[in-house]
Design a protein that fits this description.
Helix content is about 35%, strand content about 25%. The chain has about 200 residues and is an alpha/beta fold. The protein is globular. About 35% of the residues are buried.
Length: about 200
């Protein structure tokens, strides 16, 4: 059974491939010509399924029998910012870059005279196949700070300290991060669905 990732994000692809090491995993640009997907959902689940359905729908009939498409929609929600940036985490700033997104988050917290706030990451895995559409969720709770620390990871990792830790995700090694991450938790549940798919083949 082959997995096709509905993402060309290099960071996400690397992390997803590592977590799905027991499967053959390809990014969709390795199988299809790149195309834009309008993520116009109002939740992580809606956006994850929009992506997985779009990529699965672009496959021909042979490929639909060959691949199961997996997508990821994830982001960070900050309590002091009323849950922002949430589903808009990747496009929080006008520039839509990790650096600019972090800078805006820091700026908005400082505007409230805060140096930290409770926050949590959400990851939703969307799964589309000939057997239907499914989704799983994972969460990681902690806090965000207004000082970047660490070079590992991407997105808001250098600002986020998970519960039970004193270091940011950007300061943690990949193995530790993988064991506690929202994406790992969501994928662990997704693997159960994939194993059921294998039995149907």
């Amino acid at each position: 059974m082959k997995i096709l990732l509905a993402s060309n994000n290099a960071h996400k692809a690397k992390e997803l491939k590592a977590l799905l090491f027991s499967f053959k995993v390809l990014t969709f640009c390795e199988v299809l010509s790149p195309f834009e997907i309008d993520e116009n959902g109002t939740s992580f689940k809606e956006n994850a399924l929009i992506k997985s359905r779009a990529v699965f729908g672009a496959l021909d009939e042979r490929q639909k029998n060959e691949f199961i498409v997996i997508s990821d929609d994830s982001g960070i929600s900050v309590e002091a910012l009323n849950g922002k940036p949430g589903i808009f985490s990747a496009r929080f700033s006008p520039e839509k870059t990790d650096k600019a997104n972090r800078a805006k988050l820091i700026s908005e917290l400082k505007a409230l005279n805060l140096s930290e706030s409770a926050a949590f990451y959400t990851a939703c895995i969307g799964i589309s196949s000939n057997l239907g559409d499914f989704s799983t969720h994972g969460f990681m709770h902690g806090k965000v700070i207004t000082e970047e620390r660490g070079q590992n990871g991407f997105g808001y990792d250098s600002l986020f300290i998970p519960n039970g830790f004193s270091r940011t995700l950007g300061e943690l090694d990949d193995t530790t991060k993988a064991q506690i991450s929202h994406r790992f938790k969501a994928l662990s549940l997704a693997k159960m669905i994939l194993r059921l798919f294998e039995r149907q083949k």
